[in-house]
Amino acid sequence: MGESLTFAMIGTYLTYFYVDEVHLDPALVGLGFMLSYGVWNSINDVIAGYISDRTRTRWGRRIPYILFCTLPMMITFILIWTPPIGGAPLSEPMNIWIFLYFLIIVCVFELMYTFVDVAWNALFPEMYEELTERSEVIIYRQVFAIMGTVLTFVAAPPLIDSFTKRFGTFKGWTLVGITVSLIAGGAFLLSLLGSRERKEFSVKGTLPVKEAFKVTFSNKSFLTAAFLILTTSWVWSLLEALTPFMIVYMCGGTVADIALVGAPSLFLGILFYPMWRKLCIRYGAKKMLTLATVLAVSNLVLFILLADSVLKAIILMGSFGAINGGVQIARELLIPDVIDEDEVKTGFRREGIYYGARTFVDRFALSLTGASTAFIFTLAGFVPGVPQPPEVIFKMRLANVLVLLIALSAFLISAKFYPLDAIRVAEIRAKLKELHRRAE
After folding, report:
1. Helical segments of 34-155, H only
2. What CA–CA distances, in Å, run from 149 to 80, 81, 115?
3. Are 102 and 29 in contact (CB under 8 A)?
4. Neighbouring C-alpha atoms within 13 Å toward the C-beta of 222
5. Domain ranges in the chain?
6. Are 58 and 150 in contact (CB under 8 A)?
7. For 144, how many CA atoms within 13 A lie in the half-sphere containing its CB?
8. What would the pLDDT profile of 358-390 be if each residue is shown by its tens digit?
9. Can you give the pLDDT at residue 347?
10. Which CATH architecture group holds 207-440?
């Protein structure tokens, strides 16, 4: 919940706050966002993962980062919503000092968040080794992630409205930052009550830095798994970016209808998690991820081509949510399987660098989405702020379907070369049990 709440708040409100409330020039905000999340974030994910793998303390390799970096993460998150502008919007949008404040404080926050988040993610495959355990815990993770998303889109808007009206715009946003920080940071710290590490993994350490990066980024299982994750994220990001346009221009709805259309997708996803978990245990993550992704993209194609009313959109997005639950569960099993295979090959548990590298690759989904939306709008001849002629809507539908089919084709090619099917995973787990038995 802490992970999804923090990430969703940044993604949803950061640009709006600095452009619409602070009045910082949009070009500077876009540049700062690109440098902090496009460049800096891509670098620090892998570095933080490797440092975590190398850490040796009496508390373990992961827990210290959650324990000691959460408070700085909370403080810097609050500072993001507390720019030093004297309680009034900027009179000059091209303010380099506020831009530098924005860039530096977001980068420091992102560094602290990365250390906490990578360490927290790395605990998952170490604590839960069996497929039955992992698939069960993934359901809990996804349910609480949805709770964080719901807090962002349902609870945050009235909270922002209430605080800013009562305490003024900037004090109100600061209080919002404090509230979200306490919830998200508290969730990470609360997770420590159930966290445990295996001392034998910490004692072993990890590979030397050069060899660690070489082995990681030449690992066929990791590269294909990362590409499977990237393509599914591309589909999700494209859906998020275009949903407002589809609801308003294709279905004749309003922005308020977005929550109405999205809610069934979230809750039906939760409802179908247990079914997808059983299928993953029986048939393996690779087969179920492939099936669920093909069905999910097919459902989205129907949504794009057929949805011409809010009611149809609700029905089709509900069925997408039920199918997408399988994508969410199966894809979260990929990296733990890769880590298990890597331990058999290298003798080290290297969850940190693999989760950091996964995030590094996954971030490119945002770039793919940006290029996709530019392609769709340009091809369709979309003109903002005016009613769109039927031919523009038709071209938008076709262009959107074309992009989805390209993403699905890239996914299927990666799936073909991903080597960790159910049989191979069972062999790896048998070898790991023997290795761990000898180490005891």
Report:
1. 41-54, 63-80, 96-127, 131-150
2. 20, 19, 21
3. yes
4. 23
5. 1-205, 207-440
6. no
7. 13
8. 888 887 786 787 788 888 888 888 876 677 888
9. 86
10. Up-down Bundle (1.20)
